[in-house]
Design goal:
- Helix content is 0%, strand content 43%.
- It has a four-stranded antiparallel beta sheet, with no helix packed on it.
- It is mainly beta.
- It starts with 6 loop residues before the first strand and ends in a 10-residue tail after the last strand.
Length: 171
């Protein structure tokens, strides 16, 4: 298989994609999220094997810079931007049939990862949505599930909420 390292920025004002600097690694099923300062964190994925490499893209300079690796090699994980500018990355697949529920928060200011409360269910290919109140909703994924959980950054805890209306094979 061939994996891509191409990156583009979408401009909704003119409904156009513009190609920017390529990712340093060709890969797929990595997770990316916006940092509080407008840069983009991209981590993990599959390059022919699973990786824990992380890079930050700076749109002002059009340059990718390698930063602290994820504590765990994985792909198919979910990332969510937190209101304080940090990024939450959760779950994913660590081997062909091995799924994890580990969650970590990345702080770009200190270039460090901190392990936080595990997602209640191990899975990959799920989705995450930052909500207006600062909590993070994580739903669905594989093994096939429609379970949804809400992460509270302040209490470092997960709460199961209403199930997603269907069970997507991949979110």
């Amino acid at each position: 298989s061939t994996f891509s390292n191409r990156c583009d920025i979408y401009d909704p004002a003119i409904n156009t994609f513009t190609q920017v600097a390529n990712l340093p690694q060709s890969k797929h099923t990595y997770a990316a999220a916006l940092l509080g300062d407008g840069r983009v964190l991209a981590c993990g994925g599959y390059t022919g094997s699973m990786t824990n490499r992380c890079d930050i893209y700076n749109p002002s300079t059009n340059i990718w810079t390698q930063v602290a690796n994820l504590p765990q090699t994985k792909e198919g994980h979910a990332a969510a931007s937190l209101t304080d500018g940090r990024v939450l990355m959760c779950a994913g697949r660590t081997a062909v049939s091995t799924f994890t529920n580990r969650c970590d928060i990345y702080d770009a200011t200190s270039n460090t990862w901190t392990q936080v409360a595990n997602l209640p269910q191990s899975k990959h290919a799920h989705f995450s949505v930052p909500l207006q109140d600062g909590t993070i909703l994580m739903c669905a994924g594989w093994p096939a599930t429609n379970r949804c959980d809400l992460y509270n950054v302040g209490t470092n805890s997960w709460t199961q909420v209403a199930d997603y209306p269907s069970t997507p094979v991949y979110a």
